[in-house]
Write a structure and sequence with these properties.
single chain, 603 residues, alpha+beta
């Protein structure tokens, strides 16, 4: 036998932007145009959309890296393979070339099943703003009754629309805004469709589990790792160990599910994880940041050394400890995942069962240092640092190996995670008001109100007198909790559109609910209810504030945003006869008597 180089590992490493061989990050730069692509829900939606007789323009927008160009390529490949009776692989090769040549909508690049010509703008950012504006107006009514697909990040799209003097392109931004407020991706006439891929999830709440689960299954398939079976370094290779642990028939599925749950939690905390970033993180996690040459070099120094592999195991590499801050910023998902690192969360019920002597085949090099005697302060500090690193390793490993996933959010430092998820459960008990009451109590804490117990009402302070340092506060409105509801994103869109129809956005993207809303009745009839949005991180913060945590300085910006939302609920009616005031935790009424005397009574 000899030292083998697995070409599959080389292929995976090219998804890492900080790797010298990176070339798979952008569709147009891929070395292999026939590679298998994940079939997202958006592809099926696009196939149906271009066949509607009314559809003229489709915009795919969102952050760079969502795979807008790849979607167009997959759509064209499907159309060509059906029309020309060629294999999908052959069609993809032709599409790859044509997108480079005609991806500026200069000519039709294909046609729909109904025979309508199909024009594609591969990337609106390749055009200057003035030409981009003119192109958008032209593609609102494509030649020969065709259909146009425009790939554009949101910033460039808004710039081009603002540059349009005719005002016709404004419908694109209007439709985009309707998708954000009501989840509808098409204009009322069905002429324009704008799909916001920032709602696309890499950890979709679907049977397939989304992109992350699919990639892990694809990259750990046995036939792709046959070269490693004859490699001399296989017994000390962390790359192969990662593959074996994630593909293990017994424990592999739960480990892959745990990885998907971490990505889903990151998206629910407000992070936008693009396809490109997800592939980068997964690539780095699986390889541990190593190449076959790196492993071979370590093996040549010592054939049996197992002290260096620990930082490269998948449950450690996922959080990017060995990356520089600059490298983490290049793949911002690492920053979002590090906020949810279970290795930094101390829980007694977890730490008590961790065994340093059962750290696996590749334990930390200093796993036994906690038994050594120390004599100086420097030795104490070094041992504390080693012990901290050891428990970080053990907590992470246990998180992905643990069969019980009920405590998973808490182990990521999110004590309110299970309550957040429960809101989208259609079978939950409507009489259970615990989450609603906690949400309202947190909003009261934002205003500086701390009342004991679960109260049947919600207090809104007058913003003119809002301060966290005053002993008394003027109450502008007192709302009965019975009329307040907490809903998920889909229900919120249905309430806003005043219909029970499923919002189009849920079918147009790989869907994951990322926000919940508390809906508070309007101040007066004829006005809309006021909705306060909370992602998982904001909901966690409100829950902790409701329990008594106070941190006005650290969360000053968050407090200002929430206070501005609550200000829309203040009662502007002129009621000078009676003013309600909260003094400490005691409700009092101030009433004006004869001679402009102010009398105070307990409310």
């Amino acid at each position: 036998m000899s030292l083998e180089v697995n070409k599959h590992v080389q292929r995976i490493r090219r998804y890492q932007p900080f790797d010298a061989d990176a070339s798979e990050m952008i569709y147009e730069q891929q070395a292999d145009s026939t590679q298998t692509l994940f079939t997202v829900a958006t592809l099926a939606y696009l196939q149906a959309a271009i066949e509607r007789p009314t559809t003229k323009t489709i915009v795919l927008t969102g952050d760079a890296g969502h795979g807008k160009t790849s979607l167009c390529a997959s759509l064209l490949a499907e159309l060509r393979s059906d029309a020309e009776s060629v294999t999908t692989e052959a069609a993809r090769k032709a599409v790859f070339r044509d997108l480079l040549d005609a991806g500026d909508a200069s000519r039709p690049i294909g046609e729909t099943y109904a025979g309508r010509p199909l024009y594609i703008i591969r990337d609106l950012s390749e055009l200057n703003v003035r030409i981009g504006a003119e192109t958008l107006v032209e593609l609102l009514d494509p030649p020969d009754e065709g259909v146009a697909i425009i790939c554009a990040n949101e910033g460039q799209l808004r710039k081009c629309v603002a540059e349009d003097d005719t005002g016709r392109a404004k419908i694109l931004v209007t439709t985009l805004a309707a998708g954000i407020t009501r989840g509808q991706v098409s204009d009322p006439d069905g002429l324009v469709t704008v799909i916001n891929l920032n709602y696309q999830s890499v950890a979709a709440d679907s049977r397939s589990g989304g992109l992350i689960q699919w990639v892990l299954r694809q990259w750990t398939m046995q036939q792709r790792w046959k070269a490693c079976e004859t490699c001399d370094a296989r017994n000390v290779c962390p790359i192969l160990a990662n593959r074996n642990e994630l593909s293990d028939p017994t424990r592999g599925p739960q480990r892959r599910t745990a990885i998907r749950d971490v990505f889903a939690a990151a998206e629910r905390t407000g992070a936008v994880v693009t396809t490109r970033q997800a592939l980068s993180v997964t690539s780095y996690m699986l390889t541990g940041g190593l190449s076959c040459a790196d492993v071979h070099a370590k093996y040549k120094r010592s054939h049996t050394d197992t002290s260096w592999q620990a930082p490269h195991m998948y449950h450690q590499a996922l959080f990017g400890d060995r990356l520089t801050q600059q490298q983490r910023h290049r793949v911002a998902t690492f920053l979002a995942l590090r906020k949810l690192d279970p290795g930094k969360v101390s829980r007694r019920q977890v730490d008590d069962r961790l065994d340093p002597d059962a750290a696996g085949d590749f334990p930390p090099s200093d796993a036994s240092s906690y038994l050594q005697k120390v004599r100086t302060n420097r030795e104490v500090q070094r041992q504390a640092e080693q012990l901290r690193g050891l428990y970080t390793f053990l907590r992470r490993a246990d998180f992905f190996n643990c069969d019980d996933n009920e405590d998973r959010f808490a182990r990521m430092g999110l004590l309110a995670g299970d309550d957040f998820i429960s809101i989208e459960d259609g079978n939950r008990d409507p009489a259970d008001t615990r989450v609603r009451d906690g949400f309202l109590k947190g909003l009261e804490a934002v205003q500086g109100i701390y009342r004991a117990g679960r109260n049947p009402d919600f207090l809104i302070l007058d913003p003119a007198f809002l301060t966290h340092h005053a002993r008394a506060a003027v109450i502008s409105r007192r709302e009965t909790s019975k009329d307040i509801e907490v809903v998920d994103q889909v229900t919120q869109w249905q309430r806003e559109s005043q219909t029970n129809v499923t919002p189009e956005m849920q079918d147009a993207v790989e869907w994951l609910n990322r926000a919940i809303y508390i809906r508070i009745p309007a101040v007066s009839p004829g006005h809309d209810a006021v909705s306060v949005e909370a992602d998982l991180l904001r909901f966690e913060m409100l829950t902790r504030w409701a329990a008594g945590l106070r941190s006005e300085v650290q969360h000053e910006a968050e407090i200002r945003g929430l206070s501005a939302s609550l200000a829309r609920l203040t009662d502007s009616s002129d009621n000078v006869k009676e003013i309600q005031v909260l003094v400490g935790n005691v409700m009092r009424k101030l009433m004006i008597d004869i001679g402009d005397k102010i009398r105070s009574v307990r409310a």
